[in-house]
Write a structure and sequence with these properties.
Length: 131
């Protein structure tokens, strides 16, 4: 991008747990959640055009007291969106062809996927992707 902004959000000075890179705990979960919340707030206020996020450690979010299954659900709730999905986008550097893939399920155990997939769910997700 021509104009990329990176903001530094300071850690909570009152935290009693130390954050160690590569090792998760409640303090790192709280920081991770705060970073996402701040990015969403700035985007909804029109200060940012979008968010690029990284994987999170759900166990650290839980240790910090957050019960969301993942970032997708946080984004949907903060934006007050009822129809949402997790979208992957890729573009061929050779042809310019773009691939868009919307996951039918998110944040559920693999052994629950076959019970969760229904024609109705697939129709809802395809409608979201296309429309």
């Amino acid at each position: 991008p021509d104009n990329l902004s990176i903001i530094d959000i300071p850690l909570d000075p009152n935290t009693t747990e130390q954050i160690m890179p590569g090792s998760g705990n409640g303090a790192s979960g709280k920081a991770s959640f705060l970073y996402l919340e701040t990015a969403v707030a700035h985007t909804l206020e029109g200060k940012f055009q979008g968010i690029v996020n990284a994987p999170i450690a759900k166990s650290c979010w839980k240790a910090a007291g957050y019960s969301y299954p993942g970032q997708t659900e946080v984004l949907a709730q903060k934006a007050k969106i009822e129809r949402f999905g997790m979208l992957f986008v890729g573009r061929s550097p050779y042809t310019g062809w773009t691939l868009r893939t919307l996951l039918a399920t998110t944040h559920i155990p693999l052994n629950h996927v076959s019970q969760t997939l229904t024609p109705q769910l697939m129709s809802l997700k395809l409608d979201l992707l296309i429309n």
